[in-house]
Design a protein that fits this description.
Strands 1, 2, 3, 4, 5, 6, 7 and 8 form an 8-stranded mixed beta sheet that branches. The chain is of the alpha/beta class. The chain has 2 domains: about 240 residues, Glycerol-3-phosphate (1)-acyltransferase, CATH 3.40.1130.10; about 170 residues, no CATH class. Helix 12 packs antiparallel against helix 13.
């Protein structure tokens, strides 16, 4: 992978094809910004060199980075002008992404992402070069840095199951460096959440996918069962099949507890196949480690040819790759169900909430059958997008507390960021587009 840089050719291609991509692949027909003043002001300060901005965005669906990149590159300046805010230079943003994205994203992703200044980072190992690159981008600016504090797709729009501390820690380190060098340049975090909304076609897609789930789980959509009953019985059938798959005996506890038992069994199975031992208790970090090992065995880092291997050595590498692929099937199941523990939506609930749940329910079946994120299938077209910005959180204003007690200050700032996200979610729920 080349070093991240801003390529005029890639920018030209993004301008030419970005809107077409959003429509054809993500089904987006309209993008609306709310609380735009927060975003305009943060960008103006950053582009003027008067602050450094970390754009912390929610990542529940998978397309947020593409949406934000297009919006910031090609819509933000004109909307800011309408609001009376002018920028000293054309807006841009540098995204941080997991290094594995370039592997499964293919050659186009490996060309586009570095050319837009996006920076890869490892989740499962100490990545000195990657972290140094990100820290330098925050410190030197001038463009905001976009990070998803959830660490990966979280599959749930209206709750915050998990936030990682890296975003806040990197911001505090930059703020601390500025002050030690005697420079006045506040570092701030701007929380942003992204929400999908659907029309009549969304309701049709919802029932189409629910029937698909019932076909795969052996139920009939014509037996008169209500919407909630249909969801629960399909969910419980998939749950029971996974318990059987992993040799789990008599089920104990509610749905969330049973899911937890399956996750532990699936992670253990993947680790057994790979011949590795869990390095810590946290299940998500174990998942990251498994994912890292799997990708490194399926696509060997730094190796572009296997011609130097003997046929025997090549065959062994192929077997290792095959084992890694099978291990990753168990990992992919955990990747979804760690987040899939929320309540079943009500019949009278909003359409977007029901669509999200049915998407994830299908994905529960899909991953049970050996699928991955790329096999989620359901992409409801058309959809409208709501970008909801929150007020900036100044890290520089908290430096005194940070130096006195780093752990406590980081934890408190994380809670404030979570509160800001929840406020964005609450405001978005009341808005209709």
């Amino acid at each position: 992978m080349p070093e991240p840089h801003i390529s005029p050719l890639v920018l030209w291609a993004a301008r030419l094809l970005g809107r077409i991509y959003l429509f054809l692949f993500l089904g987006i027909t309209r993008v609306v910004l709310r609380n735009g003043r927060f975003l305009f002001d943060a960008y103006r300060r950053a582009l003027d060199g008067k602050s450094r901005c970390i754009l912390a965005f929610r990542h529940p669906n998978g397309g947020e980075a593409q949406i934000l990149m297009w919006f910031i590159l090609f819509k933000l300046r004109s909307l800011a002008r309408k609001a009376g805010v002018s920028f000293s230079r054309r807006p841009h943003v540098s995204f941080v992404y997991g290094y594995e994205v370039a592997r499964w994203g293919g050659s186009i992703a490996r060309w586009v992402m570095p050319g837009l200044g996006a920076m890869p980072v490892h989740h499962a190992q100490i990545d000195t070069a990657g972290l140094a690159r990100i820290s330098r981008a925050i410190y030197e600016g001038p463009y905001p840095l976009a990070i998803a504090p959830e660490g990966q797709v979280s599959y749930t729009t209206e709750s915050i199951p998990r936030l990682e501390q890296g975003t806040v820690r990197l911001g505090f380190q930059a703020a601390d460096r500025f002050e030690k060098e005697g420079k006045t340049c506040p570092v701030e975090i701007l929380p942003v959440s992204i929400h999908f909304r659907y029309g009549k076609m969304g309701a049709w897609s919802l029932h189409r996918v629910l029937r698909k789930i019932e076909t795969h789980t052996g139920f009939s959509s014509k037996d008169g069962a209500g919407f909630v009953e249909r969801l629960v019985r399909a969910r419980d059938r998939i749950l029971a099949l996974n318990e059987k798959r992993y040799g789990i005996g008599q089920p104990e506890g509610d749905f969330a507890r049973r899911i937890g038992t399956i996750m532990e069994a699936a992670l253990g199975k993947a680790e057994q196949i790979l011949g590795i031992h869990p390095r810590e208790k946290d299940q998500v970090n174990r998942l990251y480690h498994i994912r890292h090992v799997c990708w490194d065995r399926m696509i060997i880092p730094g190796v572009t040819s296997l011609d130097h291997l003997t046929p025997l050595e090549r065959s062994l590498k192929d077997l290792e790759a095959g084992e890694a692929w099978h291990a990753s099937r168990h990992m992919e199941l955990v990747d979804l169900i760690w987040y899939f523990r929320g309540p079943v939506p009500e019949e009278t609930g909003p359409l977007y909430r029901k669509i999200e749940y049915v998407q994830n329910l299908w994905d529960f079946a899909n991953r049970t059958m050996g699928g991955a994120y790329s096999n989620r299938v359901l992409n409801v077209h058309p959809k409208r997008v709501l970008i909801q910005a929150g007020p900036a959180i100044s890290l520089s204003a908290r430096l005194k507390e940070y130096r006195e007690n780093r752990k406590e200050t980081v934890a408190r700032t994380m809670e404030d960021m979570k509160t800001a996200f929840l406020a964005c979610i609450g405001e978005a729920a009341e808005y209709r587009i």
